[in-house]
Amino acid sequence: MRRPPCECIGLHCECIGCLVNVFPYINKATLLGKTVLRFCTTRSQTWSASASGYPKVVVNLIAINNTDRDVIVPSSNRALIASHNSSLNFTSLAKLSSGNLLAEVDIRRAITSLKLKQDKKGSMGQFLTPASVAQLMAGMFNRLDLPEISLLDAGAGIGSLLAAFVEKVCQHPQHTSSLCVVAYEIDPFLIGYLHQTLELCKRKCESIGICFNYEIRETDFIEDAVRLLQIGLLNSANATEFTHAILNPPYLKINANSQVRELLRSIGLETSNLYTGFMAATAQLLKPSGEFVAITPRSFCNGPYFRDFRKMFLEMMALQQVHLFESRQEAFSDDHVLQETMIIQATKQKQKSSSVIINTSSGANDDLFMSHSVPYTDLVHLNDIEQFIHIIPDKISQQIVQQMALLSCTLKDLGLTVSTGRVVDFRAKDYLRKNSENNTVPLIYPVNLSNGYVEYPKITKKPEAIVHIEETGNLLIPNEHYVLCKRFSSKEEKRRIVAVVYDADQFNYAYVGFENHLNYFHKNGRGLSLTLARGLAVYLNSTLVDAFFRLFNGHTQVNATDLRKLKYPNLSQLLLLGTGFKEQFPSLQKIDQLIENQLLSMSNLSENNPIATKSRIDEALQILTQLGFPRKQLNERSALTLLALLDLKPTDSWQLATSPLMGVTPMMDFMAQHYGKTYKPNTRETVRRQTVHQFLDAALIVANPDDLNRPINSPKTVYQIEESALELLRTYGTDEWEKSIHTYLTSVETLKKQYAQEREMSRIPIVINGKIKTLSPGGQNILIEKIINDFAPRFTPSGKLIYVGDTDEKFAHFDAAALTDLGVNIDSHGKMPDVIIHFTTNNWLVLIEAVTSHGPINPKRKKELEVLFKGVQIPLVMVTTFLSRKAMVAYLAEIAWETDVWVAEDSTHLIHFNGEYLLQAYQREKKQTS
User: I need a surface site. Which of 83, 334, 365, 828 has the fewest CB within 10 A?
Assistant: First the structure.
């Protein structure tokens, strides 16, 4: 029987020695070589446990995998393992660190986040920063080589951000001699963890000779900042100033009459949200030229509520970098936060930079960055009294801004305005009715908006009507034609602005009520002509408006203020759009055609049409969605990869799709040339790893169809759209599409098997621990097979094979536990050698590189391997291998001293590049025979 949740982390206890059972929460495939968290506060004990069909795993306190929330910890934390009757406490955790600072801290963050109640997170604006975000933020600082660094973390939580900063400082080749950290935190529950984090940071710094001091201030940051700033004004010698600040401020609305609001007014700031208060106070506490990095909502970039903050912040700070996330869900996915977030990096100086770097990625874990530089004057217009921050991430966005600039009318020019629906249902609940009655009128909710019009009545949980009496008279408006617009977009909704026509002719009533989650366009409180309403709705639903609105609207709401600030076509243009269709509201494709033909036909941007570009990317995303790809592949990167492989330009018909042979670099060139998306050149591997591999797995594309023996990691590797997939995609947008995709999806498993069999036929068989495994064909794997079958039996007899790489699948064999037992905890980003053997007879760890397309163990690679295997307690032996002497000759000048070389065609001999030892042995042998 399942027990109630255990108090420690809310998991269920099976009471086997008070063991917390986390197996229901774990993908058991992850148990191999890992340690599973089983901990209960009731007895503070750790246990060993086994899972059916899986090796015995060691159980201890600290761990959660931050990618899929599995509760695991690397087996290398053996020092944390206690006997069944020992206890663990806070201080012991810092003492027993495994050495990976940020990983240790993120483990605690994940556990802490589970223990924090969601309502408390919301009430305190308390969302802890994941390691991937913290690492990204720490990497944005420039001046880490100062002789003395003082860091401010104004809302430290458990210290993830400051830990990432400390790790970055320690990695700097010319690191500082002194680092002082001041961390603010008022939650007693988090302070214990924060203390642990800072102790880990202290150990890390002291290990490389950095003097580290820290202070935890258990007081309200705004109160203390105001006090410090006032001291600084009175006596500059006593002012507290910092060289660096890193910040994930609390997101919380503040009441106009609250103490916090008064405190912020005392330092010259009027703001409605705590996060901008934290940003302003932090910036004021920086020294001149101090650096500021913060992850915040985008909402401060525009709108009247943050006008004062923008003016204050931009006056004293110069923006240097902005990092955007394509998805609203990714940055704080563990906490299910749906928010437009961004990271900004700024320097405290009056002089502004000539340009600002804007990077964009799908999420913090995605290292495929789209990078774009814009003039500072394009980001913040010099004469703009509102000081809006216009974030333009790429060329397409620039073109969209240029096209919107062709429209000059405001709503006021048109004689129109927009207001928020008057009916707040919980305030008017006594007058609401589930169904229509004699004395009621329709009550329209966002749920009634459908396909460009209002669907009424509609079966929902919402009331359908409101009583029409004197008390509700001011909540109702005349039943005339209007345009309605949702105020809130749902999770990752395709369009930010969703507008429909309210056609009064469909309602036989004198009045109507619009609920408060709707905006409505009207003319001095009365309706519009039906043609004008239709034209306005078409314009608001266009790709052009949606793309423009997303650029400059930093939140998930569509407020009336935002709609008032938009530019609109003139009256005759809107009426022309309204006559472009009859009863049925046009599709998005038809809307964009109307906008292009009737509003932008005189534009000089036809060669690089941003509407066509944006629409084509959206279509590709829709195709990937219908093909069933997981959410991680439903992004712009995957859409562009598909379009590149089809050689399909923005204005091409889908019927013109082709299937060229294309490598990753040409794909990225295609994205830049035809879609204005320029990614950093060093991010090719992300396209391969995060999109191309998934396309291969789904049999959407095939690799090296021109030469199946070419290794997948060859620089000459090419990909091609699979033949039947190409036929399918050519039907997109036609009447045949739905039928074709159904047929394709029913046959895709057969395709996968067919291509798997073709590649399997040419794979290279090897035997490891008595089991037959196969390597992908060609390339270095031909040599790896010879290493296993010829080198290993001769030079490392009875040795234990720990790792065998495979060009196709990263590795063919990996005994992670054996490597851990030798004291090695491999970083996932480290480049492993091709083969690792533990030569148990001599107790050596033999690292072998197979040279075909890549270089040998040269001095640089030798150093990399020494760093990668720095934890090993036994001697390292490094061997470079070649297929032939001819292949070796080309690399002779590069091979590092103190390494060995093996040539497969002369398999009985080794060439030693550590000759001094051998010369001594030779001399001793000569004396013995004389």
Answer: 828
Q: Token pair of 207, please?
A: 């290990």
pLDDT value at position 9?
Answer: 34
C-beta of residue 411 within 8 angstroms of C-beta of residue 417: yes
CB hemisphere CA count around 10 (13 angstroms): 9
Each residue of 682-720: pLDDT tens digit? Answer: 667 778 877 888 898 888 999 999 988 887 778 889 999
Enter the tokens of residue 688. Answer: 């391969």
Helix axes 131-138, 160-171, angle to 10 degrees: 50
Q: What is the C-alpha separation between 369 and 363, in angstroms, rounded?
A: 10
Torsions phi, psi of 887, nearest 5?
Answer: -65, -35
CB-based contacts of 770, cutoff 8 Å, min separation 6: none
Q: Which among 339, 349, 337 has a CA at the least distance from the CA of 313? A: 349
The residue assigned the tokens 């023996």 is 709
What are the angstrom distances between the C-alpha of 824 and each of 30, 35, 819, 828?
19, 16, 6, 12
State how far Cα 37 lies from the chain centre. 26
Distance CA 91, CA 193 (A): 9
The pair of structure tokens assigned to 472 is 């509700």
pLDDT in tens, 275-306: 999 999 999 999 999 999 999 988 888 877 88
Map tokens 């990167």 to a residue: 637
Split at pLDDT 50, 70, 90, the class of 631 is confident
Q: Which of 58-67, 423-432, 496-505 bottoms out in mean pLDDT, i.e. has the lowest? A: 58-67
> What confidence tens digit (pLDDT) does each residue in 795-834 have?
998 888 988 887 555 567 888 888 888 887 765 445 788 8
Query: What are the pLDDT digits (tens) for 838-874?
Result: 998 899 999 999 886 567 898 888 888 888 888 888 9
Residue 16, both tokens: 């086997």
First to last CA, the chain: 82
Phi first, then psi: give them for residue 506, nearest 5 degrees. Answer: -90, 0
- Distance set, CA 832 to CA 759, 814, 825 (Å): 25, 11, 12
Residue 1 in this model has a pLDDT that exceeds 70:
no
| Measured distance CA(99)–CA(106) in Å, rounded | 13
Tallying the residues shown for the chain, one arrives at 930
- Strand pairing of 910-912 and 900-903? antiparallel
Tokens of 680: 């950093």
The Cα–Cα gap between 614 and 675 comes to: 9
Whole-angstrom distance, CA of residue 901 vs CA of residue 895: 9
Residue type, 508: N
Beta-carbon count within 10 A of 765 CB: 9
pLDDT band at 93 (very low <50, low <70, confident <90, very high): very low
pLDDT tier for residue 233 given thresholds of 50, 70 and 90: low
Q: Are 148 and 229 in contact (CB under 8 A)?
A: no
Please state the rounded mean pLDDT for residues 434-440.
92
The 10 Å Cβ neighbour count of residue 102 is 22
Residue whose entry in the numeric block shows the structure tokens 């397409």:
396
Place of tokens 């759209």: 721
| Per-residue pLDDT band at 56 (split at 50, 70, 90) | very low
The answer to whether 672 touches 640, Cβ cutoff 8 Å, is no
d(CA 296, CA 247) in angstroms, rounded, equals: 9
Show the tokens assigned to 923. 């001399």
| pLDDT score of 12 | 34
- Sequence letter at residue 810: K
**Token couple for 845:** 């760890």
The Cα–Cα gap between 265 and 257 comes to 11
319 has pLDDT over 70 = yes
How many whole angstroms separate alpha carbon 323 and alpha carbon 856? Answer: 38
DSSP 608: G
Contact by Cβ (8 Å): 327, 492: yes
Whether the CB-CB separation of 278 and 268 falls below 8 Å is answered with no
